[in-house]
Structures
1.
Amino acid sequence: MNLSEKQKKIRKQILSPFKFGLFKISKLPLTFLSGIKTTSLSPTSATTSVKYGYLNTNPFQSIYYGVLAMTAELSTGVLAIFSIAKYEESISLLVIESNGKFHKKATGTIQFTCNDGALFQEEIERCIEEKTPVTVSASTKGYNEQNELVCEYTFTWSFKLRAKQLS
């Protein structure tokens, strides 16, 4: 794994329960309250998880779909941020579309994995080389503890080079 220094730093922060917990409290408070965690991060994939509990339940004794969407989005989002960190250029990112499909009741611990790191890298490189905005549709699937598919999401991310700041 050939990571830039910035990627190493970001990976360490995201995978640290304490440091990422502080980040979630200040920037993503509902993620913190819902118990969403990032469990793995590499150049090719990211995994997040959420455990069914009182603060993320719905009236049907399962995880609220909004919490599932946050957990799914985080699996693609941390991979997008991690991919951008490889480059010196300043690149903005934004979710421009999301779609979800549900297959099973979400109880227990649900893990989402996004394996689109190579796609992020390819499109970010194109964004930098061509100096044009690009989009990436990243998919993530959520599985329960029995390894049954619970839900799947696709998030479309927009990447754009920021204008250089004048000194």
2.
Amino acid sequence: MEQDFMKFGLAAFVTLLVVVDPPGVVPIFVALTKDETAARRRAILLRAVLVAFGVALFFLIAGRSVLSYLGVSVHAFSISGGILLFATAMPMLFGQRGGLQAPEAEECDALKDISVFPLAVPMLSGPGLIATTLLLTSEAGGDLRRLGAIGIALALVFLVAFVSLYLSARIISRLGQGGINIATRVMGIVLAALAVQYVLNGVTGYYSTLLAR
């Protein structure tokens, strides 16, 4: 019994780590925070990780019930997340943070905050993580120990994400402004492709569900 519990916890950690892919978020974080001070970057990172962890815990505890009550599928999350991410990617192709940038300097700082979107959602806690968390919750079958193991796995995954993104500040200092501008455009292309993939996954998953009925 104890061995099965350890296997489940380890499998949950590995699966969630692969889905979140902290190293993969590093270049995106670097591109999005290129104009921020070190202190501001740390604040954005901390808030993004905490918000993402909170979202993951919410879906661990009550996600399936809430989605069922609202009649919203994970596929709908995937499509909406892809559309929002695409809106972020397009301005990056021109070396800007458009959409994330406040239109006027006098605007409230909250409008410039990228910690919630797109870092926390959907980059760190996106449709993939939500779907995986819901799947693991189903496999736990109401076992409180297994649900606790998923919670611990999530905490460890976001700890890895925090460390990975925190160290990215060194990357920023070494690349220089020219390198950052190039990285911004490249990551804009990657983000656009990722956004389209989210939409395709959502559409494919939706129609697969219909055909399976």
3.
Amino acid sequence: MRTRSSPDLARKLALMPEVELVGLSAAGDRDAYGELVRRHARFLRDLLRRMGADHALADDLAQDAFIQALHSLPTYRLEAPFPAWIRTVAARLYIRRRQKDARTVITAEPMGEDPGDIEAASSNDRLDLDAALKSLSPAERLCVTLCHGAGLRQDEISEALGVPLGTVKSHVTRGLKKLRRQLILEEPAREPHGKGGPQNG
């Protein structure tokens, strides 16, 4: 069997555009697929932990997602960028695991006001996102991360979880509202401009 693991190859793959890596991987190049895994494994594990998986489960599901994606690459037609596709694969694996373990019960609750998209928060807020997610209920956390982390549509989440669409919308809306409130509360006070303190009127 031919081995090509060398520093020169690693550097070449690290500089290669993702679409080329996907093409090589679909043709059976394991080194190219290893580079895809290297680029996205950490983010995928972080996403799964944000959904509610512990570290061990996140590692297992991320590995399973990459294995499943590898087997599916010959039929992958770049309908979505590889990062979005692998996130969807991992999210569906996590949903199936939660359903099997019956650890999450999602119930219908009244809709609240629409707080807008989580992406409207400033980039600095993202530093505190993991901590803020822990303030949500398991159902809110799952629905928010599936929608705004994994990129699933709310109707897809509804179908995957087997709950009404209105329930998913309610949890996403309420979860985003809580996140925004939590992130605002954690934002540090700004220092006055200049050494002389704040200026008057």
4.
Amino acid sequence: MALLEKLGIDLPIIQAPMAGVSTAAMAAAVSNAGALGSIGVGATDAQGARRMIAAFRERSQRSLNVNLFCHRPAHADSAVEAAWLETLRPHFERFGAKPPLGLKEIYRSFVADDAMLAMLLEEKPRVVSFHFGLPSADRIRALLDAGITLIASATSAAEGRAIANAGVHAVVAQGYEGGGHRGVFDPDAEDDCLGTMALTRILVRELDIPVIATGGIMDGAGIAAALRLGASAAQLGTAFISTDESDADAGYRETLASDAANHTIMTRAISGRQARCLRNSFTVLGANIPPRQVPAYPIAYDAGKALNAAAKAQREAGYGAQWAGQAAPLARRGLSAAALVAALAQELGKS
């Protein structure tokens, strides 16, 4: 396939770039197995991203996907932030802790990060991907001129068209079933909540660039279904959370292996943007809170991480960002990332 050649991979499988879960070791194992390994660098700076790329290259000479967050920089609102900390105060106190005195924007968007752009132009990873929107045209042109293959996530036909018109090489069709943050360009706009099957087929019909299906795909049968819809590849995230190389902590892994996997829920409370999470104490907390009461992303995440740290210190794992898709019950345990890719390839071959 043309996309596989462009990406430099043998299998139509992409490991999702899950910031906080994916690691250089995971990405290298996946790439060495013939698929596309990914790292998410939206939660680090240029130096941290460079170290991750170097760690990958110590383990693999194959293709790497470096994923960037392209959200609009947060609009701080001290009144909303103060009220949010008061809302969370009883939960902090439950663990013998106090909420932070204030909140900050903990992640810098790629749209305003010149150091990250400069690093990418120096390191030249095979693939760079965008989530939460697109950077400016000049940033896209600089990456293209460096010979980097570009991918971006879309949750609608309109976003898909914007991606194609920007000159990006391929689009990830992110279905509503998917785990983690919705890639919507505007988090305050109405979300049509298109599923993976519908969105993939719509984008295949409407666009003249390759489509990568993601959301609720956990095995070879799911990959085969996406390919039959016209996708050029499938991206899997939740399937890799329990692999040996994952950075998911013990509480996250245990929750994924529990009945909570059958009850994922969209929540804004943890980070400030809608994201699909395993049902836990934090999702219950945020279930009835209006979006306007939650600070902007990623300012809200500053509070969420502090509360999770306080809870973990008391051996309570229910306040973590335990992202997972609706097909989480299909997650396998006890496999390395390479073994999972091998199993997926075998299942795909039998489909």
